[in-house]
Design brief:
Radius of gyration: 24 Å
Number of helices: 10
Low-confidence stretches: 149-154
Number of domains: 2
Mean pLDDT: 88
Structural class: mainly alpha
Distance between the termini: 32 Å
Largest sheet: 2 strands, antiparallel
Shape: globular
Helix content: over 70%
Length: 231
Amino acid sequence: MIFIKLILAHLLGDFILQPNSWVADKENKKLKSGYLYIHVMIHTVLSFIFLWDLQLWWVAALIGVSHFIIDAAKLSFQTMQNKKNWFFADQALHILVIAGISFYYNEFSFGFLKDLTILKILVAALFLTTPASFMIKILLSSWTPAPETIGNIQTESLSSAGKYIGILERLMVFTFIVVDHWEGVGFMVAAKSVFRFSDLAQAKQRKLTEYVLIGTLLSFGIAILTGIVIK
């Protein structure tokens, strides 16, 4: 399958066979870095080797050219502020090129969109991300917990960390239910309880503890209910 072979070549070329020193040199010298062209050549050669078909030489060439264009754009416009965004955009564009080639050879179709079961799972998974987070936020809006402190020092937390933790836990709980592994749900509850116990015990704030507990139960409850409905 062309898609799998090209993805394998991409992973090897972009991560395994690209030292950090090459990345640093490219970011410093940009298009003047010799490692950029070596990197592109490695991708081209790997693609040709994994495809191993002279009739598909143009695919390897297309991978090399597109990789150079995408990487050149990334190096030209990337800054320290948007470096993370450019990394994901870069990877997404590479995968889109590979997917486009695979689609050209009829390896993919959109027939799965006609499968009601798959559509229901996709809708449920999408609901458990931002929509569910917004619902929980609205339900908890009546209570404003005191700032999380340890002693007299207010602790700091990562920006939007709670939101993403909630999304990940709901998706994992939903997955466990869909594949009929309810014991995984118990593992998730226990794991989160262990991680939050020390923080809440040190904070010694009943309101904060209750706030976190309600939020956690709402998050798990929505995920469990959604999984049951889909099943």
